[in-house]
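Intended use. Records like the one below are meant for learning the mapping from a protein sequence to its folded structure. Do not use them to infer anything beyond what is encoded.
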Amino acid sequence: MSRRQFHIILYCILGIITLILAFLIILSLDAANETANWSFFNFDFTTKDNIISAYGGLLSGILSFITILFVVLDLVYQRRQATFQEEEKINERKSELKSALGVVQIYVKRLYEANLKQATTASEYSRKELEDSTEMNRMSFHPNTYPSLILRLDNTLIYNGFLEFKPGKDWEKLYANLYSVADFYNKSTEEMMQKHKIHLDKKYDHSIRISVILDELIDCVSELRNETIASYGGDNPLLFTDSAFQILNDFKEATVAITEARNQQIEDGFPTDEISNSISDFRENIVGPLFDGIMTLYRQGNALSPQLNNLLSRTQIFLRQSEKLIKDSKDYASHIEYYTKEYLSAESIYQIKLNEINLALGDIIKS
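Structure written out for the chain above:
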């Protein structure tokens, strides 16, 4: 029996009793009027046996009827108590289900926000990686345990909550999306972190190999430059008319300039992560001009010495390897851009699903 039904029955019984009492009062006054000049507790019914008998019989019947009404009221009250306890259990169950959905809503909202933060970080990383693909750029990952927290929740309890409150028109789809999206992010985040680590390790190893090639090239240039100086006999003015020497000397001066600039940053206390270790500086300002200079000599019909041929070969190896490093980094940056757009941005289908779930559950919590 519902609360409303109990109140209707209660008010009806009380109304009937009130009417009966009013009727008894009227009847009693009418009986009292049978005695002239009557007063309270001073009635003379010695000659009115028939009235007393009728009044007593009627009163007995009315009181019996009232007794029956009170019995009915007691039965109704007991029935109401039983249903009240059932309602309490139902309300407690609803409260438990709403609390469970509230936890889900918190996790979903935090997951959505964490993805947006990661999208910002990933976009910044992609930009840096594309700007200087030879720098050891790193992408930080925001702590995101919300997918696993969602998956650890009692899925039967959550389903019962969806079934009870039916968030949205297609609540079954929302329920399915909740677990499919959480499972996706739980796996993809770990996969993304692993891929980033693999990329950094691969890039680091490749950069080390290129650095070794660069060091050997610098040593070869320095050795050939010293040999050229020795062949001209020291401070010979003709030395600086030698095109090959000019190329070698420009290489040395540019190398020294870059190295000294980085050493000065270290002495000035620049943070390590702000000091460039980019191979691009050497590629664009040192090795590239060296390759172009030697090729210019070759195109002008000058016979290249074995040493210059060796330098040309080494510059080609450096340029090919650095180009591969740049291409790999840009490919990875493009992959991060795609992943960010498709899975982390507010416009991604997965983020849209999360937002739909968040809004639907939010309406239930507020109700």
